Amino acid sequence: MRQHPEVGAEILRPLRAFERPEPAVLHHHENFDGTGYPYGLKGSEVPLAARVVAVADAFDAMTSDRPYRAAVPVMEAFDRLDADDGQQWDRDVVDAFLALYSGNSRTADIPEGL
């Protein structure tokens, strides 16, 4: 399980349809506070694309039924993302995701650089 980011990046590497998708896949389990994997990157060391994929992946995981647990309601998933204090996810990415997903976003609502 902990090797899937590296395996996924390796699978995508030869595809020409994407412009360097490997960093987003390889680093999407790096936590913003440096406690993630596979390399323990922290903060801005984690590529922005990976920080975005991490939030989207977490939301998808929370709101999808799994063999070992039922999906949570969308509003609960929003609350869980919003409750993170910058340990697991980049706060700016979470804020942008929540604004975009809710449909209440304007360009001014999205943090600079996202």
Structure explained in plain terms:
This protein has a single domain (4-109), classed as Hypothetical protein af1432, CATH 1.10.3210. The chain is built from five helices and no strands. The protein has helices at residues 4-12, 22-26, 48-63, 74-83, 91-102. The longest helix has 16 residues, at 48-63.
SSE map:
Layout: H1 4-12, H2 22-26, H3 48-63, H4 74-83, H5 91-102
Radius of gyration: 15 Å
CATH superfamily: Hypothetical protein af1432
Overall mean pLDDT: 83
Structural class: mainly alpha
CATH topology: the name is Hypothetical protein af1432
Instruction: Indicate the low-confidence ranges by residue numbers.
Output: none
Number of domains: 1
| Main β-sheet description | none
- Dominant shape: globular
**Order of H and E elements:** HHHHH
Provide the CATH top-level class: Mainly Alpha
Number of helical segments? 5
CATH architecture: Orthogonal Bundle
Strand content: under 5%
Distance between the termini: 29 Å
How much helix, percentage-wise, in residues?
A: 40-55%
Number of strands: 0
Structure in a nutshell:
Helix content is 46%, strand content 0%.
Protein traits:
114 residues; mainly alpha; Hypothetical protein af1432; 5 helices; 46% helix; 0% strand
